[in-house]
Amino acid sequence: MTWLNQNLIRYSADKHILPDTQVAAQPGVQTRDLMSYLAGIKCWTTRHKQPVYAIKRDQMKGFDRLSPDGFYDALKAYGLPASIVALDKAAQTQVRCFIHTAYGATLPITVSGVNKQGGPASQLKSTFTTSMGHYYLSDILAQDQNALIVTTSSNRRKDPHTPDARLEIQVTMVEATDDTYIFSKSIDSLRRNTLEMERFQYAYGWLTQVDNPTARFNELKDFIDTFQFPKIIGRLPITLLRKITNQNIISKCRALLSLQPITTTDAEKLDKAIIHKVHDALGFPFHPTTDIATLPISQHGFGFLSIARINAALAIDGLSRDLNHHIPAYRDMAKITLADWTCEKNDCQNPLDGPGHGKDQSRRVKSIPSSWVVAHKSMQKLSLSLKVTDQSEITRGDISLSHITNICNHKIPQKSATVNGTTLLTLRRMNIHLLKDIGKWTINGTWASDGSMIPATATLLDPKQITGAATGKSTLVMKVPGRNVSILQGEQVGLIIALVLSGQNDSSNNEQQCLLTDHLNSVHLIHDNQTNISQVPRLQYMNGRSYYRWILSLHERRHIAIEYTPGHADGLTLSSRMNNEADQLATSSGRVVPLYCKLLYSGMR
Fold this sequence. Notes:
Elements: H1 2-14, H2 31-48, E1 53-59, H3 68-77, H4 83-91, E2 95-97, E3 100-101, E4 104-105, E5 109-111, H5 122-141, E6 148-150, H6 153-156, E7 169-171, E8 173-176, E9 179-184, H7 187-202, E10 208-209, H8 216-226, H9 238-259, H10 264-282, H11 290-293, H12 307-323, H13 328-343, H14 370-382, H15 392-396, H16 401-411, H17 421-429, H18 435-438, E11 446-454, E12 464-471, E13 476-482, H19 487-504, E14 513-517, H20 520-529, H21 536-539, H22 545-556, E15 560-564, H23 574-589
Parallel strand pairs: 11-14, 14-15
Antiparallel strand pairs: 1-9, 1-10, 2-5, 3-4, 6-7, 8-9, 11-12, 12-13
Helix pairs in contact: 2-13, 3-5, 5-7, 8-9, 8-10, 9-10, 9-12, 10-12, 12-14, 19-22
């Protein structure tokens, strides 16, 4: 049965048989993912001022009250072979059970057709059975006007700013093994849906009981306050107290915080509570501050682990995990939350990167998940940001004019005229919503290259290094150290990099690309090489002739035009800005000191 369980879990994940919001038997899904999903729903209701009703249901007695027929019906519904049913029935026929009492084990009792509690396939059987109910409820809600549909504010206004803003999620039910939440926008709809699920599960022997969970912070605070250090003759040394604290208190706190991070203020209160308990055990005449107590010993601290730092790290990691989750439901919920946060709460500025990252978001704790607010504040302190690696919607024109206008209003000085809402409303009435609705045009690939040398005034025998940089559809910087290098070779390396990258990014052999450089001699040589006059005799006496031969060979195999642009120009044209960017890359990268790490070898005896 263990072999069957492993293969069924892998198969159901590959074929997406189980619902996305069913945590059990989903490889790579954690309980914190479901809690983050629920936090996203709660904050969505606050942002949109939409009342949402939910009921939590907990199954009695776990899996041992579940009829095997539910698992068999699920296998039949999903088109799985009947041999699985035969194998499971054979494993549950004539099973000998022993009852352990205070007087020893009883004589064996033979049972048949009963799910074994804690067996290798018991969780999977439960998940397959409840998944049928999940899909059944989804079909019912598809015809229900009070079904909870989560989307962004801009999409509800028929003006989605970005592709992520068009996402919609029908929230039917979320499940964590035998605990479920059912959602609806009206109490009558919730009653009907709950009754339908009760009827469904009753056929397979399940009943529901009610649970009342406590707050995460109060649970941690009570655990720390009631924790007792061991009693010995005298006082415990600080090294032993630190070890006990890290292994018994911090470890449990970290496990609970991984499910749901708390606010930074509450985390600092927990740190103070731990240090206060350690202070009482040591009997010091003074109370150490939390900052000193949680510093490493190498920095003259006491070396206690900090719950506040652990909480911040878990919050940042959870934010990144939500936005890049492999399950679509969790990922889409995070994208909807980020889209509303960006456009409705932060004036279309990304709150996780760029100028919008510097704004205070502490007051957004009701409309944005609290763990996200904690992660944002921690990222600000550490100068961290989450970069958007895919902005292809801009080049496709698949972006709202309202979104572009809001961004430009932040970039353009206030004395410049801004586009008002009346203009945008008029365009929307004419079915002009996106940038591509105005018109489409083909943009040829444009590249820019530049080179630098550090130090710039080095003599012939001084050690130095050259840097070549190229930017366009992709960016690459390369450094060449040595004594026999010059700024000429830096410009040549930049040209070589640009020519190589343009060939890799050239999806069509007929696409005409352009390479901008401020090295006029190289441009003249390349243009002269396109004439009928051979440049071989000329190259024999030129400096950097090996690089030039490489450049000419690459240029003959590329559909790219090399043009000259003045260097260090202050204009706002495309050529000036791209040249300045390439120059900045070459200059700044030359000052970066590469990091080297020693390889460590260890042996076993």
